[in-house]
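Field log, afternoon session.

UNIT: design team B
ACTIVITY: writing a sequence onto a fixed backbone
BACKBONE:
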């Protein structure tokens, strides 16, 4: 059993992914340090009710920025769905290292191609999808 820690911004894009064997204060602290070092200081940090988040936030000095609410972290939970769907199709992972590689790559690809289909008409969606694919091919080569 391993745990997937993820940082998601206000638009639902995945900023950081991290895999650990434990779900304690040290794991939360490691993940938060990594995320804050890369993405600066946020105005607010929304988490679930896990007490290890609170302990890690106290140690970092961000305890006043933490927001915990019944439905506050729905954006984070919903951003797990495409990852879980893909993971289930692959019949799980055998090693933590391959899971970490997949999580980081999947986040990049999903952020690039997630175009919120329900918000646009078909023609606009096709144009954005083609532009994203062209940009991806330039980045891959």
């Amino acid at each position: 059993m391993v745990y997937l820690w993820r940082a998601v911004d206000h638009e639902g894009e995945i900023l950081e992914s991290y895999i650990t064997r434990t779900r304690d204060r040290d794991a939360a602290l490691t993940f938060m340090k990594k995320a804050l070092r890369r993405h600066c200081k946020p105005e607010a940090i929304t988490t679930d009710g896990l007490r290890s988040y609170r302990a890690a936030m106290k140690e970092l000095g961000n305890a006043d920025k933490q927001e915990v609410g019944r439905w506050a972290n729905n954006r984070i939970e919903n951003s797990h769905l495409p990852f879980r769907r893909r993971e289930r199709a692959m019949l799980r992972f055998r090693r933590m290292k391959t899971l970490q590689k997949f999580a980081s790559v999947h986040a990049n690809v999903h952020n690039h191609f997630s175009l919120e289909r329900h918000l646009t008409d078909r023609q606009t969606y096709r144009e954005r999808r083609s532009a994203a694919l062209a940009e991806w091919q330039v980045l891959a080569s």
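LOG NOTE: The first strand starts at residue 3 and ends at 8.
NEXT ACTIVITY: expression trials, pending approval
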